[in-house]
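TASK: fixed-backbone design
INPUT:
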């Protein structure tokens, strides 16, 4: 194992509490872990020294919500939306068709390409979902491919009722044979609880069946309108409820009183011409907020966490520190990976060595220089994956 000391850090964001941002700091990576963080003047020797010449350093982005197991694209649907058509859950069926027709090699290559694209922009921990297969065999194939490339895999059989199928029969399949087949290959189960997808009762059935098999729970909720998603997620102790675009006061209160993370997906809201979520209400009430890309071919075809951070600061009244924390520590919390040995979204001894160096003296430049690519170099689990 070789060790690396990173020096010349302009500003270091650690997401540890006291304080979370340092100047004059250095850090040491050994193998796949961070082993030391402190003042550069006291930095221990290491096999390699990398001087980042005054650049800002932060934990790699933790993208806790993507849908990268897909084939095809939906450019024409997007263009129609920009011409005034509304976004509808039914568009998912277009990607389901393309995905079922794709070979395993094509799906794997598409996934690798998108993960590489994200990594090059500073994302070092990614969750991705099934949900474009919607048969036992296609969902299983997606989960197995996903497990080779990403940190966390989520089963989303309850993404859409396949066209022409009976809703209750399909929910029976998801709760029975599909979960039996998928549970050994995934850590999480998600459900799209929304009008046009799955109502609260059916979503609850799926989530309870998943919990019985030991899976962690996640919910797509309150994306296209007010609805029961947040209530269901908090009642069932889901790790995260994602979208949260249309919340009322009781949703905000329920999130603030729960351990469920509110994962906001601003690129999706912009790409579907929805309002942006009220991050301020959530933060002021004391809820935990994460930011994620929701990279998928329908509602949010971007892997750029920097874009999400920029939008959160410029348009959602999040401070720079809040937005950066939400896209790193918040995502880690949504995946329950923010603590313990190998934690992500933090830079402290014992954390995974996931480091993002910006071509900027301060992380504030992510909002100050919107749209400018600022990733300089990236380490993932101690490997330098971009320089
Ligand atoms: O999170 N909301 C449901 N699922 C995805 C959209 C998938 C699609 O349109 O293909 C989302 O936005």
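OUTPUT:
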């Amino acid at each position: 194992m070789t060790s690396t000391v990173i020096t010349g850090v302009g500003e270091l964001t650690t997401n540890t509490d006291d304080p979370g941002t340092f100047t004059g700091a250095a850090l040491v990576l050994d193998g796949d872990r961070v082993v030391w963080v402190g003042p550069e003047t006291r930095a221990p020797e290491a096999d390699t020294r990398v001087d980042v010449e005054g650049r800002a350093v932060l934990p790699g982005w933790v993208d806790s919500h993507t849908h990268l197991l897909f084939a095809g694209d939906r450019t024409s649907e997007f263009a129609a939306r920009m011409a005034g058509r509304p976004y509808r859950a039914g568009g998912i069926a277009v990607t389901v068709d393309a995905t079922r027709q794709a070979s395993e090699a094509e799906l794997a290559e598409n996934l690798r390409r998108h993960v590489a694209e994200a990594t090059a922009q500073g994302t070092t921990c990614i969750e991705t979902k099934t949900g474009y297969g919607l048969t036992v065999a296609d969902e299983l194939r997606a989960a197995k491919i996903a497990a080779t490339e990403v940190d966390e895999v989520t089963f989303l059989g309850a993404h859409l009722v396949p066209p022409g199928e009976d809703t209750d029969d399909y929910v029976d399949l998801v709760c029975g044979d599909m979960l039996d087949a998928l549970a050994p290959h995934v850590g999480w189960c998600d459900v799209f609880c929304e009008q046009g997808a799955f109502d609260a009762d059916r979503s609850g059935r799926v989530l309870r069946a998943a919990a019985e098999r030991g899976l962690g729970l996640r919910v797509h909720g309150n994306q296209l309108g007010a609805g029961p998603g947040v209530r269901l997620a908090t009642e069932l102790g889901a790790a995260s409820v994602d979208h949260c675009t249309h919340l009322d006061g009781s949703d905000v209160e329920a999130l603030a009183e729960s351990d469920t993370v509110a994962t906001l997906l601003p690129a999706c809201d912009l790409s579907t011409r929805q309002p942006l979520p009220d991050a301020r209400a959530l933060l002021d009430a004391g809820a935990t907020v994460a930011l994620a890309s929701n990279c998928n071919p329908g509602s949010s075809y971007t892997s750029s966490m920097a874009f999400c951070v920029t939008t959160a600061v410029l348009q959602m009244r999040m401070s720079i520190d809040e937005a950066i924390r939400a896209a790193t520590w918040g995502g880690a919390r949504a995946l329950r990976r923010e603590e313990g040995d190998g934690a992500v979204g933090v830079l402290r001894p014992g954390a995974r060595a996931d480091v993002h160096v910006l071509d900027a003296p301060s992380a504030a430049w992510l909002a100050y220089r919107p749209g400018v690519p600022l990733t300089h170099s990236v380490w993932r689990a101690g490997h330098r994956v971009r320089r």
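COMMENT: The chain has two domains: 3-60+345-386, 61-334.
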